Amino acid sequence: MILLRAVDDEGLERLLALAVADADPADVMPPGWSADRLDEFRGFYRGFRRDAYEVVADGRTVGMARLTAGGEAGLWLARAARGAGLGLEVLRALVEEAPRRDVFTVVAHTTTDNVAAVRILTRAGAVLEVADGHVTARIAVPLEPPPEYAGPPDVARESGDGVSGG
Asked: pTM above the 0.70 mark?
C-alpha cells in the first residue's frame, strides 16, 4: 500500500536525495537537469508544491506524484521501486484524490516510447490519444469509485496531509 503525502520542506529534501541517488534525471525534471544542480530541483518543485505528493511505500519515500487543479497528473518512481505495481497504485490514488480537488478528468502525457507508463495508463482505464509519438491519456473520475479503485473502508487522509491508496 502507498501513501501520498503533501510535499513539505522535509519531503522536498527526501525527494531530492532520492532523485540524486536512484532516479533518471530526465524523469524528475525537464531535460537538462543533473544531480549537481540541487537548488534548481528545489526551485522547480517549490513552484508546484501545492500539487505535489511524496509517494511513500513501506515507510520509505519512493517517488513523487502531482495532480493539478486542472487535472494534470504525473509521477516518477525511484528505479528500485519500479516493477512492483506502485505506478498503478499511485495513479489510482490520484484518481481517488481528484474529486476532493474538484477534478473530474485526470490527464497525463507521455511518449509512445514510455511503454511502462502507457501500460499503467491503459490498466487504469485511460482513453489514449496518440499523435506523432506523444500520448495524451484521459481518465474519467467516477463519482463513486469502482471496487478496484476503492481501498478498505478505513482508508482516509493522513492528518489532512496525504492520501492513502489501496
From this structure: yes
* DSSP 3-state of 54: strand
Half-sphere exposure of residue 29: CA atoms within 13 angstroms, side-chain side: 22
Under DSSP, is residue 63 helix (H, G, I), strand (E, B) or coil? strand
Backbone angles phi, psi at 158, to 5 degrees: -85, 105
What are the distances in angstroms from CA 7 to CA 15, 101, 104?
A: 9, 16, 23
> Over the stretch 11-52, which tens digit does the pLDDT of each residue have?
999 999 999 999 988 888 877 788 888 999 999 999 888 999
Q: How confident is the model at residue 158 (pLDDT cuts 50, 70, 90)?
A: very low
Instruction: Give 3-state DSSP helix, strand, coil % of the chain, rounded to 5.
Output: 35, 30, 35
